[in-house]
Amino acid sequence: MSNRKVAYVWEENLIEHCDRLPAVIGRASLVHSLITTYGLLNNVKVVRSTPATYNDLKLFHSDLYLDHLKTFGQIDDDYMPTTEDEEYGL
């Protein structure tokens, strides 16, 4: 038997941001509600999420990708993705 512990990373604003992702609109809050309703948090360690630093992001993402993200400001509803956006899957 393993001594591993299970952790659930949670923060309300993280759920809200994930709910707005076009591919999975509303899914994060639905899944979180199911997890809490079924009492699954009773047997895990709940950990609050913390924002990643730029150096944290660099451990996973390329500098080119992060530099491209820096070019975004407020996005309007009529925004059309550029070729570079599409290359990054944005």
Automatic annotation (TrEMBL):
It comes from the Eukaryota. This is Histone deacetylase 8. It comes from Pararge aegeria.
